[in-house]
Amino acid sequence: MSNCAECLAWGLTHARGVCLACYNFSAPRFGHQLGDCGACRRRVPLKSGYCRLCWCQAREDRAAIAENARSQVVLAPYLPNVRCHQLFLAGMTKRRGLPRSTPRRHGVKGRPPKPSPAVAVRPGIRWTQLVLFDEPLGRDYLVVQFDLRRHPAPDNPWLAWALHLADRLAEVRGWQPTVRRGMQRTLVRLLAQHSHGELIRATDVCAVASRYSANTEYALEILRTMQIVAEDQTSTFENWLDVKLDGLAPAIGHDTGRWARQLHVGGPRSKPRAPDTARSYLRLLRPSLLEWSTRYDHLREVTRDDVLAVLDTVRGEARRSTVTALRSLFGWARRGGVIFRNPATGLKLGKRDHPVWQPLDPADITAAVAATSAPDARVFVTLAAIHAARPGEIRAMQTTDVDLASRRLTIAGHERPLDELTYQVLREWLAYRALRWPHTANLHLLLSKESALRHGPVSAAFLLNLRGLTATVERLRIDRQLEEALAVGFDPLHLAEVFGIAETTAIRYATNARLLLEHPHEATAPASRATRVSTWHTDRTGAPGSR
Fold this sequence. Notes:
3-stranded antiparallel β-sheet; mainly alpha; 19 helices; about 550 residues
């Protein structure tokens, strides 16, 4: 033990004669160059012109001089005034500030929680000041300076109501303390000077919420409940639609846009379709619409031959989808009086030819399970490969569907026994889920950082992406049902009972298995599914699993 050559602290030193803190301080990755210190004039590694010893002394001076060392976090003003140094022992320096006003609860990290806001309702307005001249909406909310750590919330009834709504939303959805604080700062910025009759633009809400890393949708949800939001944002669908309609003839683009919007939001006599319906239909028809726009100015000029020419260029499932989109577009145009005659009348979808699925190769399944490293990814692969669960069914599963004590699992309302491998994977995931999101109110089995703050399932984009691999999640599900059909001798009743699928689907898999059994050279018997997936689980956890 000796004195450090740079900070003069007594303790353990390294080969260069410096303590561990000074050794890290002079590491090349920090870029602290050698020079003369601006306070003590020693030639040592410097940070912003001062050595580490002067930085430590400035921290001590700030704690003694500053009125509130917790809020005064800047050390730069104290560095030029360093004239003497308090020596210390190496490895024992800590950030010392003023004592806490409220003692920290045992076992709880972070600052102590603040009391919940008082119950508040919509402010009662007895009178209001009418506006003489219409002024454009908007205020620079980012210039409002207010620190909730040092002062209470402003005395504004609208802000009190918003904080109460945010507190109720946080309790219902199980927000973490950091999420609560970010939302409170956002609402204070927006409503500290709010008055009756004033509207806040949605773009301003997004700008302030982004500054505090708060969720913009939740902030807008609170303000929409208060009915003080001026919607000035363009929806994502409208932006996408403008791009897809670019290049079409004006009349064709106008009518196509009306049709797509009705599919998306519904009409007087029609309900809105699924969110992806309008996108998929327009994506299929856009090449044809672009070609028609070079020859025609309106949809009424499109003939039956033009429609048949489009269908001649597609085959299989793409043709069926294109026929459905053409019938939807021209059927809407005929009902609305846009065209005189429907050129898509009488188009037949034709009989769907189901493919004959082949069993997956063991190497493909091995590559798929090797690509799963996260706990949620292992849940996806296990439920698809062992229980033949669809991706939508996995997203919709809730924690009440998993009964580890009774070894039972419920998928899409169909109860089945829980095997040892699935038991281990679900147990690991539930432990990780409880550790990662201990306060969430979302009952769905799978969670993400977004869905943990609300009640809905994870998004479709959250699904395990095995792009580029043969054994995708959907392909693993198909292979599992095909394996069962081959094992029981293509019995559709058995398949419907085991997997809870429809009779027609069970018959299709039984027929697929019969075709494979009639051609033994095409149905190479792979290794058992439980053996392959159990090997993956054994390699990762050290505990063997079996089906």
